Amino acid sequence: MDIDTFIERWSAARGGAERANYQMFLTELCEALDLPRPDPASDDTRTNDYVFERGVKRRESEGLASTLRIDLYKRGCFILEAKQSRAAHRDDGQGALFKADETASTAASQGKWDVLMRNARRQAEDYVFRLPADHAAPPFIIVCDVGYVFEVYADFSGSGRAYSHFPDRKGFRVRLEDLRDEKIVKRLKAIWTEPLSLDPTRESARVTRQIAERLAEVSKRLEKKHPAEEVAHFLMRCIFTMFAEDVDLLPRGRFTALLKDQLDHPESFAPMLQALWKSMDAPEYESRFYAGFGLHLRHFNGSLFKNAKAFPLGREEIGELLAASSHDWRYVEPAIFGTLVEQALEPGERRKLGAHYTPRSYVERLVEVTVMEPLRGDWNAALVKAGDARERGEHKEAVAAVRAFHHQLCMTRVLDPACGTGNFLYVSLELMKRLEGEVLEALAELGETEGIGFETVDPHQFLGIELNVRAAAIAELVLWIGYLQQHYRNSVEHPAEPILKAFGNIQQKDAVLTWDGYPEHQFEMRDGVAVQVYPNARRPDWPVAEFIVGNPPFIGGATLRSRLDPGKAEAVWRAHPHVNESADFVMYWWDRAGEILTRKKTPLRRFGFVTTNSISQVFQRRVIERYLGGKLPLSIIFAMADHPWTKATSDSASVRIAMTSCEAGRHEGSLFWTTSERGLDSDTPEIAYESRTAKINADLTTGVDATSAVALGANQGVCFRGIIFLGDGFILSPAEHQQLLSVEPQSGSLIRTYRSGRDLSARVRGVTIIDPFGLDLATLRREHPVVYTRLAERIRAGQSH
Hints:
Elements: H1 3-11, H2 18-32, E1 50-57, E2 67-74, E3 78-83, H3 104-128, E4 140-145, E5 149-154, E6 164-165, E7 173-175, H4 182-193, H5 200-222, H6 228-246, H7 254-262, H8 269-281, H9 288-291, H10 315-325, H11 334-345, H12 360-391, H13 395-411, E8 414-416, H14 423-445, E9 462-466, H15 469-490, E10 506-508, E11 522-526, E12 529-533, E13 547-550, H16 560-563, H17 568-575, H18 586-597, E14 606-612, H19 618-628, E15 634-646, E16 655-664, E17 669-678, E18 686-694, E19 731-732, H20 734-743, E20 751-753, H21 757-761, E21 768-770, H22 777-783, H23 785-796
Parallel strand pairs: 3-4, 8-9, 8-13, 9-10, 13-14, 15-17
Antiparallel strand pairs: 1-2, 2-3, 4-5, 5-6, 5-7, 11-12, 14-16, 15-16, 17-18, 19-21, 20-21
């Protein structure tokens, strides 16, 4: 059956019986798209990976033993829920069911259809969490009105909590007639066969890395003649100008044309570009580059183009900018762009450029549970309220319920108190803009129109604290690019002018320490030496927010004094006397967020942090225990105790982290652990998880709280803590073990399998250890010279690795 025959056949069958038609409809769809048909269902549900009526179990708490059934399920691809409405569909050419100005009876039919499709989506999302533990959340949910339309939602994070319009709000509905479009057919076939290939961040990552490499070359040459900070701001203006051109905020193609023209006239590049930027900042200034074309420039304002300076460039540097400008900037991934740009602009980091970045899915997982889960709960409550009003014929009341939530969403603030280049803030913005898209869709279904001037989610809600000047500036740029990307995915209109606004939402300061006279450094003489002092060291204020989320710096408590400026560690300890000095640096952020969350009248609803995976160890969990057992307790509502973060490279050890998210009160939480980890050396790792729901203890376990255990007197003197060695130079990686045996086979008698407590409680490293016990130095040197040399270099000389 070809597409045209399929469309004609099923267009005539609209309004039939859902249960009688949906399997035939979907089977014939597969034939028309040249896709495999669903398999016959088996009594053994473990084999039912692509079937109709896939059974899933109810939860014990529901008190019902019956099995629920997914209309069509394809493991690792999608859950499809089918309905067949009897509404008289009318096509407005935009994918809407009815026009807003039709009769009351027509509007009532539209309302019933909206509720039908929304309930089907919720049903499909509920099935995600009823799948077997070894089935990952599918990246797609499809809601189908048989014979009329498909609605497509996607969540590439793997959490199953973030399904949103795919590819965007303007294109998530696929009508039967749309199947004549080859692009849409290709998209549907990919959902069936290679769903992860549709993840836009994969291609964005590749393009973004290529652009950053170009910028690194320009930066490297400019810094030979100009200060690094000025070069950074110059390139950020170039970046935004390229983006503005591709979203038609600037006349399409004109900036790229400027770059092409200046290849042969590099002497006029700087004045031409500076004139353009001055026009973008001050609309009354007439740019001679654009005046000749009769083109209007929008007003950008903000601080990005204030007193903008353009550097003279040679032909080669202009060529690099031209190559970067030739990419489609609408699809650059801001969540990784900031990190790569920072590397491009930081000479010490250029050797790592393009090697790796923090995978987007890791960031999204924490943002989803910390920020979006509560907001989606509020949105679902608003939908129930609006639906009830609609059923009673109270149209204004229904609109008011949706608008009230939209106002709440636009007033919600997210703080990252160690924001770096803004990854967590951008992901929060994107997910909140997606939710706003659903709100606007609900308003459209109620006949409400959109327009410039309406309240909207924008960068002023996303607050950051960052000590590094360059990173703070990049974070602001990342937020604006991300905001405008999301705006154009939901709207065909340009935002109101000025396009950029100086919100001052990223504060450049220290998040854990301030002092009298901050940020100036003060010194006093001690024994004839000038020592930096921090008078009246104390915790600084944090901006007020409903949610706190981020990834504070990883510095171990044991190295805090050596890693911070002289005297600063002592000042941090004085400012946080309730935190034990052995705690890792990240725990000072955790402690402050915990203190804010447990205040009597706090707007903070949840906080979530990425930390070192040592958070469950004694010196770190003392911070957590303080809040879990307080008079106003908080609970860990999400935890992952041991998770990969960066891939291992020759110059960067593999890092494993933990994630925690907390809410005030006493609640159970979801404890996750990884069951398989593949592709950790790539930019698209594949990680599978399992989880359980229970009270989560301070050591990130469930069940019996081992942290409250006390020593048994009866065990005194009957156990031995094991060999204590001095220095990691005794430890051999598997590769070092084999190399040692190849050059000195007799040393095999000195090598033992080694397991530490962390190996037993987390992940076995597979290392061995050199054990020369019983040999004096002379014998060791004579009989095992290679071992002796290694230990002499790495242990005796104090150069332990």
